[in-house]
């Protein structure tokens, strides 16, 4: 209703909203996204990562908002250790069945980033930041968990309104300048910021932002 009234949006979707969506969605998530919506976000993110770090492997990788593990499948070959975190127990259950993660956690991702002591070479957020308006809390949390020289790669939907906008789909769109703004605030360098096709929505192509932020090395 907030989106339809074009009211000022909250900084993120409530946990209860996300849990309700994916409680019903988890059992057929992969089929609907791939077959009905031509979902390509994991592949676009893999291309972005490859363009920056080549075929680097043996990495400590964190997949936040991992969902059913669609992005994790492509990350596994790079990982010495692959950790997945998601708010939805039902989505985590599907991810567990893939048998690609060394560790899976049910948690809200900003809280998990604040509480963990883990350090990672690569943190990935594929299609989960559409439920955040203000990207600062996630970006700041990721920056603290990156090793020197580490990368935070993510997708979101591109929007024309700065800094972000809650669309009538219930997802947020983000202006590229907001990505630059939160990267600078977190002390990260924008190594890559590109646009690309993510999926369709009501028969229309959804243009995404593909971002890779980098932490300075020693």
Query: What structural class results from the helix and strand content?
Result: alpha/beta
**Average of pLDDT:** 93
Known CATH architecture: 3-Layer(aba) Sandwich
Provide the CATH top-level class: Alpha Beta
Identify the overall geometry: globular
Oligomerization: single chain
Q: Helix fraction?
A: 25-40%
Report on the biggest sheet.
9 strands, mixed
What is the distance, rounded to the nearest whole angstrom, between the alpha carbons of the first and last residues? 48 Å
Sequence of secondary-structure elements: HHHEHEHEHEHEEEHEE
Going by CATH, the homologous superfamily would be Vaccinia Virus protein VP39
Low-confidence stretches: none
Please give a quick description of this structure.
The protein is an alpha/beta fold and 218 residues long.
């Amino acid at each position: 209703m907030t989106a339809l009234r074009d009211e000022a949006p909250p900084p993120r979707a409530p946990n209860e909203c996300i849990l309700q969506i994916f409680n019903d969605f988890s059992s057929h998530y992969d089929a609907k996204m791939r077959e009905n919506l031509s979902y390509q976000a994991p592949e676009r993110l893999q291309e972005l990562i490859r363009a920056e770090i080549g075929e680097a492997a043996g990495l400590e990788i964190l997949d936040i908002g991992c969902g059913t593990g669609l992005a994790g499948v492509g990350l596994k070959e790079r990982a010495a250790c692959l950790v997945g975190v998601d708010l939805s127990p039902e989505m985590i259950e599907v991810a567990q069945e893939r048998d690609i993660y060394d560790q899976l956690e049910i948690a809200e991702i900003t809280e998990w980033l604040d509480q963990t002591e883990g350090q990672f070479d690569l943190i990935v957020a594929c299609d989960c930041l559409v439920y955040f308006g203000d990207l600062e809390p996630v970006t700041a949390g990721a920056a603290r968990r990156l090793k020197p020289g580490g990368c935070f790669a993510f997708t979101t939907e591109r929007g024309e309104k700065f800094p972000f906008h809650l669309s009538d789909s219930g997802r947020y769109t983000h202006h590229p300048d907001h990505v630059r703004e939160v990267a600078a605030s977190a002390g990260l360098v924008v190594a890559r910021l590109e646009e690309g096709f993510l999926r369709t929505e009501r028969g229309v192509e959804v243009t995404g932002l593909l971002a890779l932020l980098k932490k300075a090395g020693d």
